[in-house]
Each structure stands twice: as structure tokens, then as C-alpha cells.
Amino acid sequence: MKPSPLHPSPLKALLAAAALACAAIAPVAHAATPAEQLAGYTAQAGAPAVPARGQQFFNTRHGREWSCASCHGALPTQAGKHASTGKSISALAPAFNPERFTDTAKTEKWFRRNCNDVAGRECTAAEKADVLSWLLALKR
Amino acid sequence: MSFRFPSLSTKVLFGVLATICATQAAMADGDRRMVPLLPQYKQECAACHLAYPPGMLPAASWKRVMAGLPKHYGTDASLDPATVKELSTWLGANAGTYKRVSEEPPQDRITTSSWFERKHREVAPDTWKRAAIGSRANCAACHTRADKGDFDEDNVRIPK
Q1: Which of A23, B76, B133, B135 falls between 20 and 30 A from B146, CA-CA?
Q2: pLDDT of residue A2
């Protein structure tokens, strides 16, 4: 008997959800592409990312002295400059710096610290998804 | 007998002089004898600023710096506990012990230490404000080989 076409699909969805959950929980460094990390944040947020909203978040202040752009530049396709030390910061957009967003632990570390500096709190999954989707939309 | 005492005394004197000279050389060129940087230290700390040679602060200062990473000179530089422990151990073992850094500078800032002030007394206040410099923490703006641990005056190029 031919298996019902309905069966594989829920199973696949369950496996995908489990994989995403594992990726989100695991505290150790995991190699992942920027697109995979965006998919993870989008799944956590439960809604599609909006690049324009990410750009807005990135370039505005959130009650503190700095915005993301203060160090990364308004268009992070080129090197930025640390707002207090002056040290050069390599481009943040993955198309211009292939090392960016390739390690989930590193991504989480920097979102945690920088959101704390910029917004005085951790960012939501939706905010991370929005920002990352905008960064991924910046093409050469 | 009468020769022995002066001879011993001379030896001791030479020993003391040699020690003083060595110490002074170390003080003048303290940064040239920089210990190799722990890769983890470089990776974590040099993301935002130069990987400052551990010998530029005394152990007590490094201890406070590492205990206060979530509020690190106005920014959140927090790290996971295992990394904090690893870096703290290494910084403690390689902290400055020679005279000029034995003093704990105000706010545990290298740039507020008296030796830093003395070394940079010829730099005009306006120079520090230049766009390419921006901050006293930005050693590499003028010390062209700072990332190699070389702070020799000969390699200083002050940007216009």
C-alpha cells in the first residue's frame, strides 16, 4: 500500500522544529550560515522578518547614547569604527564579510552585549530577525 | 684580607647596578618584552580595542576589570564564565610587576596611569581629538606597531 502523502509532511515539520529548538538551546559554538541563523530567529519570533524594520532599528537610538550604527556605520557594508575606542570594526553585512554570522554562539554573544548597550535590554527574536534580514539584503 | 672586602663590595655594587640598569631597561622597553598574547585574549578583547599588553596594568587592576565585564568602561563586554576564568588566570600571571605599573591607576585605566601621562606629555590636547585618533585608548592610531606589542617611539606616526 502506498503511504499516505499526509504522513511525511508533519514528520518533517516536527524534525525541523526539533532541529531549530536544539540550535536555539545549545550553548556551544555551532557553525551555521547567516541564512540558517535568520531562519532560527524567524522561527522563534513566529513571524516573517521585515528588513526595513531591521534597518530602522539599526539606525535609531533606543533611549541610550548609541545606536547600532554608532559603531557599525549606517550602512554596514564597509568597516565601522568603535564609538569609544576608535578601533576599526570590519563590515557587518555578510555579503561584504563572509565571516559574519557563521557561528551561532558568537552571534548570540554580540546581540546580547550590543542590545544591552543600545537598548538597555536583550533584543527580541523578532528584532534580531529583522536586523539580520536587512543585513542579508545588502548586496554587492 | 684587606683586598677581599672591597672586592666583594665591588661585586655587590656591580650586581646592584646591573639590576638597576636591567630594571630601567625593562621600564623603558617594558612593552618590547611583551609576552605572547593568549589567542583567546586577543580574540575576545581585540574585537573592540587593541589587545593591551597585560604588563601595562597591575594584577589588582586586571582582577577588577575581569570582575566588571558587564559594565566595562560604559559597555557590556560580558563573557561566559569559562572564558572569564581563562583570561583572568592568564592576565593575573602576566600582569605588570615592575615599578611603573605597580601603582593601580584611577579607574584601572592604562591611560590614567602616571607613566602614560608622562610618556605622552608632549601630545597636545587637540591632537587627541583628531578624527583618526579619537581616544587615548586607540594606541594603534599613532603606535603603528602596537598590535605587535611594539610601542617604540621610533614607530610613532601621529596622523594629521
Answers
A1: B76
A2: 44
Whether residue A87 lies within 8 A of chain B, CB to CB, comes out as: yes
A136 torsion bin: left (phi>0), alpha (psi -120 to 50), beta (else): alpha
With respect to residue B92, please indicate whether it lies within any of the assigned structural domains: yes
Between chains, do B75 and A112 touch, taking CB under 8 Å as contact?
no
Inform me whether the pLDDT recorded for A77 exceeds 60: yes
Closest CA of chain A from B102, distance in Å:
25
The reported pLDDT for the residue numbered B5 is 47
pTM above 0.95, yes or no: no
Last residue of a domain, one of B58, B75, B104: B104
Question: What is the reported pLDDT for A101?
Answer: 98
List Cβ neighbours of A134 (8 Å cut-off, separation of 6 or more): A51, A52, A53, A54, A55, A58
The answer to whether the Cβ–Cβ distance between B75 and A86 falls below 8 Å is: no
ipTM for this prediction: 0.76
A132/A44 Cα distance (integer angstroms): 14
